[in-house]
Design brief:
A 7-stranded mixed β-sheet has the order 3-2-1-4-5-7-6. It has helices at residues 6-23, 34-46, 63-72, 85-98, 134-144, 163-178, 199-208, 228-235, 241-245, 249-266; strands at 53-57, 77-82, 103-107, 120-126, 145-157, 212-225, 272-284. The protein is 43% helix and 22% strand. β4 (120-126), α5 (134-144) and β5 form a beta-alpha-beta unit. The structure holds S-adenosylmethionine.
């Protein structure tokens, strides 16, 4: 049985979407806000022309959607799809508040979403491809792109080869594991990013789906938490929520108390620094 067994995958999807739905209010609005940080940097690199037609798959709070909407301007179109109602509601409010006639969100499952062939110049997917049945979804994304159209996906990447940062934050990995029994095996939903966490794995998935001119680049940045409370809000606002939601009440108290003591020792004048990384994959459909 693989992760993409339909029954296993549907159950995983319900868990994943549930966690992000509960996180939606604070997602990318507290802590290091790495999703909009990388979305802005990566959209800058894509050279998107005014008038372009774009699909943002698993849009969340619209980090890529808003960056792309600025590029396409009022003559273009950016459609964001997601399955989490609270993500969709928050993003719709922001589209309205910003007066963006070129952007909209729709509730749709990225695993089965269908637009006519050759509908889009770009398909974007930020930090979410690993949650999908991507071997099948990528083939459909290729068909929905125009010939020569571009897919751009971002992926979490932990800069473990940076010894200083690794030493600085090692306690967090140890402390998180300490809260669970020694033989605890994290559920597949908690560790889904591991499916696509190296340039080789991402390139292989894109190649197997028929994309060409594949390039994967790596970025790192030191981003800052304002203080330990800001870090705590962040823990609940993104992927680490899988872990904190899974802790027992006593485990959670121990985790928070021990973490706050370590974070206070790490404070610098600008805040609490974290070296964060991301991978950007860009590829084209043949032709064009
Ligand atoms: C880590 S967030 C990424 C959000 C956004 N792309 C960004 O870069 O900040 C993952 C998002 O994927 C969405 N998601 C997960 N599985 C999905 C599916 N099958 N269809 C649509 N959205 C899905 C979740 O609801 C969540 O909003």
């Amino acid at each position: 049985m693989t992760d993409f067994d339909p029954h296993v995958h549907e159950a995983l999807k319900r868990e994943i979407v549930g966690v992000y739905d509960r996180a939606a209010r604070s997602y990318d609005r507290v802590g290091i806000k790495q999703f909009s940080y990388y979305a802005n940097r990566f959209v800058e690199k894509l050279d998107i022309a005014p008038g372009a037609q774009i699909l943002d798959v698993a849009t969340g709070r619209g980090a890529l959607l808003f960056a792309a909407a600025e590029k396409v301007g009022p003559t273009g179109r950016v459609i964001g799809i997601d399955l989490a109602p609270n993500m969709l509601a928050e993003t719709a409010v922001e589209i309205e508040a910003r007066g963006l006639v070129q952007a909209e969100v729709r509730k749709a499952d990225a695993d089965t979403v269908t637009f006519p062939d050759h509908s889009f110049d770009y398909i974007l997917c930020g930090f979410a491809l690993h949650f999908l049945d991507y071997p099948h979804a990528l083939v459909r994304f290729r068909q929905m792109l125009k010939p020569g159209g571009v897919i751009a996906t971002t992926h979490p990447y932990v800069p473990t080869d940076n010894a200083e940062n690794f030493e600085r934050w090692k306690w967090l990995f140890t402390l998180t594991r300490e809260v669970f029994p020694p033989d605890f095996v994290p559920p597949a939903s908690w560790i889904a990013p591991n499916r696509l966490n190296t340039p080789d794995r991402i390139s292989a998935a894109l190649r197997e789906a028929g994309f060409v001119d594949i390039a994967v680049t790596q970025e790192e940045a030191v981003l800052y938490f304002a203080d330990e409370e800001d870090w705590w809000q962040w823990e609940w606002s993104q992927g680490s929520r899988f872990w904190v939601e899974g802790m027992s009440p006593e485990g959670l108290v121990h985790f928070k108390t021990a973490a706050f003591a370590r974070l206070q020792e790490m404070k610098e004048p600008q805040g609490i620094p974290m070296l964060d990384g991301a991978l950007l994959a860009v590829a084209r459909t043949p032709g064009g």
